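Lest this sound abstract, we think one record worth quoting, the chain in one-letter code, the fold tokenised, each line plainly labelled:

>
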Amino acid sequence: MKPDAMTAAPADAAARKAIKPVVCYPVEMLPRPELAAYRALRDDLELVETIVVPPREAATWTVPAGHFCRIVCSEGAQVGDLNLFNANDLKERFYSGKTRALNGTHVGLGDQLFSSFPYLRPIATITHDTLDWYGFDEFGGAVHDVIGTRCDPYTHNLLSHGGQYHHCCHSNLTRALARKTGMTPREAEGYVHDVLNVFMCTGFTRDTGQYFMKASPVRPGDYLEFFAEIDLLGCMSACPGGDCSSEHSSDTAKCYPMVVEIHRAKARPAGWAPPPVNGYDGTHGL
């Protein structure tokens, strides 16, 4: 929270504040997916794998390029913290900051999830969202944010004056990735990154600019679906905060499992090709 101002406002304070904002990244030239070509395949998908993510735990799965992945609310309101990696090169992973800069604070139908430098390319395209009706509420809240980082044991330690808690999403993701790859937890932790908060309803308070959460509007049967642009390794934690209506990193919040479904399409989207890695030459002016 910002303290009360110590500096007297200048005479032109109102004029300075009245300057109109400029969007940092105009995206008119950004290549956009032909969403209709993706959605044309959705009526004839074959379910090939189902993964259950236990409450307060995480699980991993793979999505071959050209397949669809659905994250499903199966039993009760529950949010999930999602990491995505290039299944063939874990150094390429979901980049929430650049995804936020290009799409906005929350993602939905037609948005693409971008990978980290030096790759910076779309690795997944959101093709369906049963919560797209929610939009932004009167508090400025919306679902599927790319602004939160993930609940973690380090922040918990700071805020609880030394407490140790191991079922926060960061630790859940670390354990699951370590199991999948054979890395030690310390090694795996270095690959865990800022998440897409699936189903989580969040925003920033208008008076103090603080990150807030509120009860997720998700209900059993709701799902977020994306198309894998490259071979993906997914890793998701069913957050120990449940629907995040009161707290996260908790053993008392009511939590539910989440389901991940992998669907095979009978064809590729018309005109589709896997996105190449970013074309910047990497010389950085030297």
In short: The mean pLDDT is 95.
